[in-house]
Amino acid sequence: MLLREVRPWGGPAADVLLRDGVIAEIRPHAAGAGGQRSQVDTVDGAGRLLVPALVDAHVHLDSNRLGLPFREHTAGTADAPATLAQLIGNDRAHWREDPPVAERAATAIGLALARGCTRFRSYAQVDTDCRLERLEGVLAAAQQFAGRAEVTVIAFPQAGVITDPGVADLLAAALQAGAGIIGGIDPCGLDRDPAGQLDVVFSLAQRHQVPVDIHLHERGTLGAFSMELIAERTKSLGMAGQVTISHAFALGASNDDATVGRLVELLTDNDIAVATVAPAGTGTLPLRRLTDAGVRVGLGQDGMRDYWSPYGDADLLDRTWQLAFTQNYRADALIDYALAVASIGGRSVLDPQAPRLGGVHDRPGLAVGDPAELLVIDGDSVTAAVMDRSGDRTVLHRGRVVADGLALVGRRYRTGH
Ligand SMILES: [Zn+2]
Asked: How many domains does the chain have?
């Protein structure tokens, strides 16, 4: 496959040859050089940008309601925002009213893939109400997209582990059934037994040899305490590189600078990754500080138009804009960096061996030998593409075109003949 006349990270036009799912050759674009066009499939870049494909490092494919009629938010009111317990209860009361999880998850994967996201790390709620039904739905949707997108599924105890007796056994069953990661959530705030929850989660990780991903909404000293407990277990079990903390609000403005510095050190010492959904307010991450320290950080859409929130539209580029906006970025280098976090950053969360962002000016991911997970998109510059989010996109997974013009394409896509 030849990508003709594309601009890697907004640089000079190049012709990029893909072979066996990786970038095989990059050479300056030669106008009219058609000698190889009879032998290889060609995508006409037409001067568009080339960036690494987006990676959703934190998404709840099992709860999304994309494509369904819009529904009023019924957890909490304008004057009394919902508590976590009310959000969980609202979801539990209504999720069966929607089409099957497999159908909804497939809709979301298709929409996101068509917009440039080829890899997903998705939660599937596991509790005593839904048991493995949601997990099986997300796994079925992932199977439907095998060869076109990669989906790793997290067995996620959304309603707690200790407060919902029986969940530990269901989590073990979920890992047997195909979940690739074990999740946890607010071990203090939700379970009120941090050691109890984390010991269950980490022992399942050890027994099934899977990574850990903890949703941590806890702020201030409570969140810092939970992060310390997670780091302790990561260290004592030799799980460096295998643990992610999602949200990690304790790294935001709810803690003082010295505490945040100490927490960043815990993350680097134990190679613990962070996944963010780019919130505003005190949960906003010190993004540059984290990547400057070598922490792997990825971006995700979180829930999309579900019982928790009306936000989310399956376009990770919109969320990239939100990341730049909530970080108050204006300089082009910083907005380009936000896109690097959404692509290469996410990849490094999924794979600790993958290259990681060394800082705001680092743009890895498009060298010879890098995986041909790519997004070709119209835009004057990378920053312009984040601002305008053109629909003129071509998406490649393992060196093959899987979507074009925001629509999925068949496996035998060919142009240039
Ligand atoms: Zn989440």
From this structure: 2
